[in-house]
Amino acid sequence: MYSKLRVVLCHTTHPGNIGAAARAMKTMGFSRLVLVNPRFFPHEQATAMASGADDVLQQAQVCSSLAQALQGTVLAVALTARPRDLSHAMLPLRVAAQQVGAELAQAEVALVFGTEMSGLSNAELDACQLLATIPAQNGFGSLNLAAAVQVACYELRQVLVSTQPPALDREQPLAAHEALEGFYAHLERVLKGSGFLDPAQPGRLMIRLRRLFSRARLEREEVSILRGILKALYPADDGKE
Q: What interhelical angle do 145-160 and 93-104 show, nearest 10?
């Protein structure tokens, strides 16, 4: 299960934080590091701060987008220090870790961290299914990136080493990230083509729909059914990307 977790760092500006995050991961038994558009990598400061976790850095995957980083995952958990308007429900990290641990028994999961200065963008949050926060002192809740990775990996390790890890009551596999994104793109095109969604005044409809379907945790077959319905209702869009 440890190998099914990927830690995704988005737009990291300081290479030392990448190395420190790699070290934090390795101390908890995790090794899959994914970097989205890091400003400096590889870098000697990252290697120095890794302090023995050089193998995590050497195996790190560098991606050009968060969508690429999340390919193949069925659950992406965004770590954020503050709630966002119209976003998914925010869970304490310890609660979210229980869900992550259950999913890891069957599929790939990602923990997603934002840039040091501003965290994750609204678009990046929309690409995730859960938001998690590390409860901290009011007024000073922003942790160093590597410290946040350390706490998140620790909480997840406690779930994985428990004698009775959480079990999933699910028979069918969840839809992967790329399947969900394909569905959202198809849905948006149909809504625009049918006139239901005005491209000039889109409002927050797609954000609300993403939140709705994220709560539903769509299975692979359910996404196929929904896309089949879209094709039947609006044949002008054949569903091809």
A: 60
Query: Does 196 share its domain with 229?
Result: yes
**What pTM, to 2 d.p., does this model score?**
0.89
pLDDT one-digit tens code per residue, 80-96 = 987 666 566 789 999 99
Specify if 239 maps to a domain: no
Neighbour order of strands in the sheet with 90-92: 61-63, 32-36, 5-10, 108-113, 73-79, 130-133, 90-92
Same domain as 93, residue 141: yes
pLDDT digits (tens, 9 = 90+) for 109-122: 999 999 988 899 98
* Angle (nearest 5°) at CA 204 between 203 and 210: 150
